[in-house]
Design a protein that fits this description.
- Helix 10 (304-320) packs antiparallel against helix 11 and helix 11 (324-349) runs parallel beside helix 14.
- This protein has helices spanning 21-43, 62-68, 87-103, 147-169, 195-201, 205-208, 213-216, 219-235, 276-301, 304-320, 324-349, 361-371, 391-409, 457-467; strands at residues 2-4, 10-13, 47-51, 57-60, 107-115, 118-130, 136-145, 173-180, 187-193, 239-243, 252-261, 264-274, 357-360, 378-381, 386-389, 414-419, 424-429, 471-476, 482-487, 491-492.
- The protein starts with a strand and ends with a strand.
- The longest helix has 26 residues, at 276-301.
- Helix content is 43%, strand content 26%.
- The chain is built from 14 helices and 20 strands.
- The chain has 493 residues and is an alpha+beta fold.
- It comes from Haloarcula amylolytica JCM 13557.
- Its EC number is 2.7.13.3.
Length: 493
């Protein structure tokens, strides 16, 4: 400012000076902050946009430019989603913008945007920016590409559906088992079981959940199961075991597999299957193999003698012309026929009985008695029960025992058929009996104490009993003779 004289000429100047150093520093700091913020926004992997209340762009970061296909030097200020996106998508994003502004709170939505011919799903958060009066003047939009996450969610949902379908529809019993303190003293608790487990074990999932094997089953069975679970944890791999008391009936094969989480065993899945039929079939095959070995031994040994007699007698008859040699031939042939017939019976009676019928034990015994040559022997029947069995095989069993008693006990022997105190029946006689040291071997094929016997009679009895799933044993009768007892027999009184 100039001060002038009366002629208007300046005589001095008056100036006011102000220190603006702080102002320039604050301006510089603001510009630095703005640049840093711009760098942060442009390098962020998420899509960040600012819009006005009419959904027109005020700012978009580099990631959003790339998403929308906008060049770095192209201005987007004043543009809207309608200028960049398909109309149907722009309409939805505009509606979401206005909803967030109207509600004055963050709105979270999923938006599908086409990128290079491929649809990408984004999780978008739209937050209104409010002035001092609480009125919105701008909208901040932050979007994250969740396409892979959605794919994994769909895959997880598919796997979950498949898991549920297998878990609930398989015939195998499945139990999911949790582990407490796996590294020290693990405790196993049932988490979940499937319908097959409930159906076969009689336990419901609700009653099993949270229980240990010892709490759910008997102490002995539960301890064995827990030991198997511990063995699986120690091995860190699938193990298999068989257990007869795991479920109410049958033999069960259980496969226990560890489930890992973060490299550590987190749970176990136990899959059990009733293998009773397989075990029975395996045992039947073993019995058949044993019989085949017996047959091979008998054919190679017992038939060799009558064949030798036949061969020698034919040679003598040819050389001497003596007809008496033919009698020896016929006796040898009869002996071979008898052996072959008993062998066929032994093979046939070993097959498992599939169908049974009720048989009155008294009348069956009387009928068998009359079918056998008994001479002066006597039959006493005290049995009052009805047994369930294959009639033809039971007749074979009783006839063999009656014939055995008459053969070894003498023509006046007394044979008794009666019921056991528990389930079963017995056939006893008052003959000479069987020595105690021979009680185990008496049922072996080829066992005989007479020259003319084939040794198959009691072996056939044992096979018939096994085919019915009965147990047979021999002991001494009250009269000092032999007593054959059959237990495990289904019977009624």
């Amino acid at each position: 400012m100039f001060e002038r004289d009366e002629n208007g000429d300046p005589v001095r100047a008056v100036g006011i000076h102000q220190d603006v150093t702080d102002h320039k520093e604050r301006k510089q700091a603001l510009e630095d902050t703005s640049r840093k913020l711009q760098v942060i926004l442009d390098t962020a992997p998420t899509y960040i946009l600012m819009k006005d209340t009419d959904s027109r762009f005020l700012f978009i970061n580099s990631a959003a430019r790339e998403l929308y296909g906008v060049d770095a030097d192209e201005s987007v200020v004043g543009m809207s989603d309608y200028d960049i996106l398909p109309d149907h998508i722009a309409e939805q994003t505009h509606a979401d913008d206005q909803r967030a502004l109207e509600q004055r709170e963050t709105v979270e939505v999923e938006t599908v945007i086409p990128v290079d011919g491929t649809e990408r799903t984004h999780l978008t958060r739209k937050t209104p920016i409010l002035d001092e009066d609480g009125e919105p003047y701008a909208l901040c939009v932050v979007a994250t590409d969740i396409t892979e996450q959605k794919r994994r969610e769909r895959e997880l949902a598919r796997l979950t559906d498949e898991y549920e379908a297998v878990f609930e529809n398989t015939n195998d019993a499945i139990a999911l088992v949790d582990i407490e303190d796996p590294a020290d003293d693990p405790t196993f608790r049932y988490v979940r079981t499937n319908e097959a487990y409930e159906r076969q074990s009689g336990f419901e999932t609700e009653s099993l959940t949270g229980q240990t094997p010892i709490e759910a089953a008997s102490p002995d069975t539960g301890r064995r199961i827990a030991d198997h679970y511990e063995r699986c944890v120690s091995a860190g791999e699938t193990i298999t075991f068989e257990e007869r008391d795991l479920h109410p009936t049958g033999v069960w094969e259980t496969q226990v597999t560890p489930i890992f989480a973060d490299g550590e065993i987190d749970r176990l899945v136990a899959i059990s299957r009733d293998i009773s039929d397989r075990i029975e079939y395996r045992e039947q095959l073993e019995r058949q193999n044993d019989r085949l070995e017996e047959f091979a031994s008998i054919v190679s040994h017992d038939l060799r003698n009558p064949l030798s007699v036949l061969e020698g007698s034919l040679a003598l008859a040819r050389d001497t012309g003596n007809d008496e040699q033919f009698d020896r031939c016929f006796r040898a042939i009869d002996r071979m026929k008898e052996l072959i017939e008993d062998l066929l019976t032994l093979a046939r009676e070993g097959d498992t009985v599939s169908e049974t019928e009720p048989l009155d034990l008294e009348s069956t015994a009387l009928s068998c008695w009359h079918a056998v040559e008994t001479s002066d022997a006597t039959l006493e029947v005290t049995a009052e029960s009805t047994i369930y069995a294959d009639e033809s095989r039971v007749r074979q069993l009783l006839e063999n025992l009656i014939n055995n008693a008459v053969t070894h006990g003498g023509p006046a022997v007394t044979v008794e058929v009666g019921d056991l105190t528990d389930s079963g029946f017995y056939v006893a006689d008052d003959g000479g009996g069987i020595p105690a040291e021979q009680h185990e071997t008496v049922f072996e094929s080829g066992y005989t104490t007479t020259d003319g016997g084939t040794g198959f009679g009691l072996a056939i009895v044992k096979e018939i009993a096994a085919a019915h799933d009965w147990s047979v044993s021999v002991t001494e009768s009250e009269a000092g003779g032999a007593r054959f007892e059959f237990s495990g027999v289904r019977q009624e009184f």
